[in-house]
Amino acid sequence: MALPAVVNMRFGVIAKIARIRYNIPRNTTEEISLMILMLQKNTPEPAIRQLLAQLSLQNVKGGCVAGDNAILLPLVGETWRLDPSALQALPFVIEARRLTPAYRLAGRAVHPENTVVTVGDAAIGADFCLIAGPCAVESAYQMDTLSRAVKDAGAQLLRGGVFKPRTSPYTFQGMGEPGVDLLVQAGRSTGLPTVTEISDASQMELLSGVDVWQVGARNMQNFALLKALGQARKPILLKRGAAATVEELLLAAEYILSGGNEQVILCERGIRSGLTAARAALDVSSIPVLKRLTHLPVIVDPSHAAGRADLVEPLALAAVAAGADGLLVEVHDRPATALSDGAQALTPAQLTQLAEKTARLRAALE
Ligand code: PEP
Ligand code: MN
Hints:
By secondary structure, this protein is α/β, with parallel strands linked by helices. 33% of the residues lie in helices and 18% in strands. The protein is built from eleven helices and 15 strands. The protein has helices at residues 11-21, 45-56, 84-88, 140-152, 177-190, 223-231, 246-258, 286-293, 302-306, 309-321, 348-365, and strands at residues 34-40, 60-62, 65-66, 70-77, 93-98, 117-119, 122-124, 129-133, 157-159, 194-197, 212-215, 236-239, 264-268, 298-300, 326-330. The strands form three sheets. An eight-stranded parallel barrel has the order 8-9-10-11-12-13-14-15, surrounded by five helices. Strands 1, 2, 3, 4 and 5 form a five-stranded antiparallel β-sheet that branches. Strand 3 and strand 4 form a beta hairpin. Helix 4 packs parallel to helix 5 (177-190) and helix 10 packs parallel to helix 11. The protein is elongated, with a radius of gyration of 24 Å. Residues 135, 161, 165, 216-218, 239, 269, 301, 304 line the site of phosphoenolpyruvate (PEP).
């Protein structure tokens, strides 16, 4: 049975009714979290009272509206703690639906202003940010060459993986510990803050000298890792899983935020569609959607979506046009010899050209 039209009322109207019903002052900054339950019309009153009493133990208050075909319980309070599918399994409950999202800290209701993550000279979320570097740290020579090229191209941060989550266990897994020093050294000598992937909470100490920790697409729902990063005081670049919805990405960010770490940057890097000619389908529409739903910065990695160097620039420009707060781009001085992701690596000259085109596009859009 479909929910009655009242449920589809605009959120603002429902929030207004809830403010009046629960005496929440109009000028309060407290956000209103709402859910609605639809019960069978013959639900006995004691069952409704018991349900509301149980909900009040979870800091959720509820009203009761008896309709001709069903009984509606509008719920207000800490509804983000409730699980609609668990509620739906209760006797007499026909449907449970959230009217406000479960990612309350990542959402704009609690935090309307954009979050700005400051790293070195970069104010990610306020100013456009270019992060570039090799897929993997490979040698001192490579990091020296590339860090200078990245700096000359105008990037604000230097990336380089040392723990590589590769699909096959037989491919290059990253340099590990010795690679950390090479990345940090290259960052120091060029004055660029660094980004690397953290694939396990046990690496936190080893990676403490790196400025931003990246959570890879494969780890977006590694909840033990996300919880550990919530305790850290380090910016986290959280990549969208290749098969994750926008809501799942925001709930993954919520794990970090709810631990007390407010410095989260989201990254769209392409999702699996099975239809695209590229490595993954860059979900350009997720950029304006995320910018509307969340206050967190949204950057885009065109390299992993493209899988081929010639597709990186058009995808990057599409992302910029769609409102991305920055780009994460893979570069290599000799892509043909790269130990990982060489096919999608831009040369330093191509990176410089991309940075220039990006700047022109942003100026044209202003
Ligand atoms: C990477 O940035 O090198 C990487 C492995 O990315 P992703 O997790 O998006 O595949
Ligand atoms: Mn890569």
